[in-house]
Amino acid sequence: MKQETKWFEVQENESISECMDKMTSQGFQVVGRKEVPLFEEVNGQPVPVRQMIQLKGIKEVKK
After folding, report:
1. CB neighbours of 9 closer than 8 A, spacing ≥ 6?
2. How far apart are CA 51 and CA 33, in angstroms?
3. What are phi and psi of 13, to 5 degrees?
4. How far apart are CA 60 and CA 9, in angstroms?
5. Contact (Cβ atoms closer than 8 angstroms) between residue 6 and residue 59
6. What tens digit of pLDDT does each residue of 10-47 get?
7. How far apart are CA 24 and CA 22, in angstroms?
8. Phi and psi at residue 22, in whole multiples of 5°?
């Protein structure tokens, strides 16, 4: 069996649990997580806006 890998981004209006539920409903299992800071330029200086959270999922694919 081959594994399909996909990254899911936790949207601003959803919780991590909601994103995980979405992944499960599509047949994916959580196997990783990464957070990336998002910045916005204010007066020529980078200012952190929020953390972008991504969850890595795998799904068994029958071939």
Report:
1. 19, 52, 53, 54
2. 12
3. -100, 15
4. 20
5. yes
6. 998 999 999 999 999 999 999 999 999 999 999 999 99
7. 6
8. -60, -45
Which sign, positive or negative, has the C-alpha torsion 13, 18, 23, 27?
negative
pTM (two decimals): 0.79
The phi-psi region of residue 47 (left if phi > 0; otherwise alpha if psi is between -120 and 50; otherwise beta) is beta
| Burial class of residue 10, CB neighbours in 10 A (0-12, 13-18, 19+) | buried
Neighbours of 57 (CB within 10 A): 22
Strand locations in 10-44 (E): 29-42
